[in-house]
Amino acid sequence: MKKLILALVLFASLTSCKKSEKAEEPKKIAIVVSTLNNPWFVFLAETAAKKAKELGYESKIFDSQNNTALESDHFENAISSGYDAILFNPTDAAGSVANATKAKEAGIPVFCMDREINSTDAATSQILSDSYSACVQLGKLFVDKLGKKGNYVELLGIVSDNNTWNRSKGFHSSVDNYPGLKMVAQQSADFDRNKAMEVMESILQAHPDIDGVFCGNDAMAMGAYQALVAANKADKVKVFGFDGAEDAINSIKEGKLTATAMQFPKIIAETAATYADDYFKGQKDFPKKLPIAVEVVTKENIDKYIAYGKK
């Protein structure tokens, strides 16, 4: 009997030590992003990792390569490997809900960055750019720059991403009020530069006479501009982007792109990491959606901005 009691005491002591060791280990944060094939998302992920380190946490970046199945693998890995929070840039507004829900059920908070998921409770908080309002302003500028008339093309992002439609709807809320402006083509290029170039080349064959191109992000804007250069039309067509990426900022300075909308990925990423820190320290009440303002950038105000933010 004494041996049994001694064994139980020893087991309890070992278990207590393991719990103590776990409590003393630094918290780990998984940073799951839709793709690292876009410099904007690279900046978002690396900024989140840097902020997590500053706050005293280990972190690892996972690249979903715009693939929801791979994203699911990353979540399984994060959960099984004992990560304590997930900073999440989703691949799919609807398809990514299951992954966030799985993490929540495992007791792991999820903080969405830039892209949202179609759920009001799966994520602990969603920190999102105010894409709609920004594109209302971009649309007004588009109308002004084209003189309220002309043919134009719209390149959409990933159709399963809410940002694609928030930007498109904001743009059209301004532009559709002018019957002199005619959209001759609207096609998805998946937020991808190379695909945008190919799509634009194809559109130009069917519609050679256009005056403007509105793109759902800067990568597509740069791809569209490349296609226009190849077709000797770059000096005749006004190209608009969205993001505030380095290529776009430099192109506006050089008079190539007409405008973009500056998101602030540093604010988004640092807020997400700080929210995780607050969660670890006991806070459980966070805004379900936190909108981050976006600013229109043109050649007239370009001196106020640098890639991914303000000077």
Characterize the structure shown.
The protein is α/β, with parallel strands linked by helices and 311 residues long. The chain has two domains: 28-128 and 265-291, Rossmann fold (3-Layer(aba) Sandwich), CATH 3.40.50; 131-264 and 300-306, Response regulator (Rossmann fold). The chain has helices at residues 2-24, 39-54, 68-80, 97-105, 131-145, 162-175, 193-206, 218-230, 246-253, 265-280; strands at residues 28-33, 58-63, 85-88, 110-113, 125-129, 150-156, 181-188, 212-215, 238-240, 259-262, 289-292, 295-298, 305-306, 309-310. The strands form four sheets. It has a six-stranded parallel β-sheet with strand order 2-1-3-4-5-11, with helices on both faces. The radius of gyration is 23 Å and the shape is elongated. The protein starts with a helix and ends with a strand. Mean pLDDT is 93; it is low at 1-22. Keywords: Signal.
Largest sheet: 6 strands, parallel
Q: Termini distance?
A: 74 Å
- Structural category is alpha/beta
What is the CATH top level name of the largest domain? Alpha Beta
Estimated radius of gyration: 23 Å
Compute the average pLDDT: 93
Question: Would you give the CATH topology of the largest domain?
Answer: Rossmann fold
Poorly predicted regions are: 1-22
The strand line-up of the biggest sheet is 2-1-3-4-5-11
Helix percentage? 40-55%
SSE order, as H and E?
A: HEHEHEHEEHEHEHEHEHEHEEEE
- Broad shape: elongated
Strand content: 15-25%
